[in-house]
Predict the structure.
Amino acid sequence: MKIIASKENLVNALRRANCAIASRVMLPILSNVMFSVTDGKLTVTATDNEISITTSIPCLVEEEGSTTLPAKKLMQIISALPEGDVSIESDSNDISTITCQKSFYKIHGLSAVDYPKINDASYDWSFEIPTKDLVRGLAKVFYARSVDETRKLLNGVVLSILDGVITITATDGRRIALQEIPLDNVELKNGDYILPSKASAELSRCMDDGEKVVVSLNKSEVSFSTGNTTLMTKLVEGTYPRFRQIIPQDCGCKVTVQRSLFTNVLSRVALVIDDPAGSVKLTFTNGMLKISATSAGTGESSEPLEVAYEGEEVNISFNPNYFQDPLKVMEADNITIEFGKQFTPVKLMGDDGFLYMLMPMRDSK
């Protein structure tokens, strides 16, 4: 194998492919990326046997062939090279010579014969979705998934399709975040498709800048293709919780506040909390929302906000991190908080199609 390719193209390809490389691997070859040169292009492949990423770049082909190279070290080397064309030549012993201007490296690889086969799955159906909508939807919900490795169903993100609307959803059992994406003039089949946690996290990072992502599905696998890059992953087996049934249509009370103002006040008040299980309290009274916190080790804090609320006093307590997470990814200038009495769900809205729902802590009074 012998090619010449631009440093920029190589860095971009390796950055996308390296998203599939696991931090700990059982097989040494899974720490490598595979280079395959055919038809005037270089295809870079990486897999951890759960997700696989392939991406192609143009290159000058002097000799076709394939090899595998250590992914992270190769990324460091290519990134450090001077700007310009990079020559990569691999011999029969899978030793690759890398040169760029005066820079020279000789890197030991492993045979591509031993690399896991990335089979072309047979998909039942596919559809297209705007890349920005998919990336934004995943960012809006990913933080709400469970980090408990024993809860496989809740570790990932579900693509729930119902009546022409894709709802990207994550929950850990205490809170739920969802983003609805209606697709007009696209034929969709109803169903839930659970993406593993890693695929959900890396998908946004490895996609090309194409306008559309082609999503192809069958019962056990899904692929996402855009530009010259494809991510394939196994789906999580099981039935996702029926989240739509637990979302109340009307919580009873509703207030609207400026997102940046509310975020800043919440952050300031939470500074006194020195216990991970600590909470902030939202106290709603006529025309006022007071945010307060108390910590045995530090002291207390509070700050009021004027809001359009009329009714009896309502106190709701939350872990501040759980309330700040959605505020970090929302885009609307104003947010709406819906709440009821005592230990009832609280809804946070503002962005089109976005909903966040959280159960208060039981020390609410």
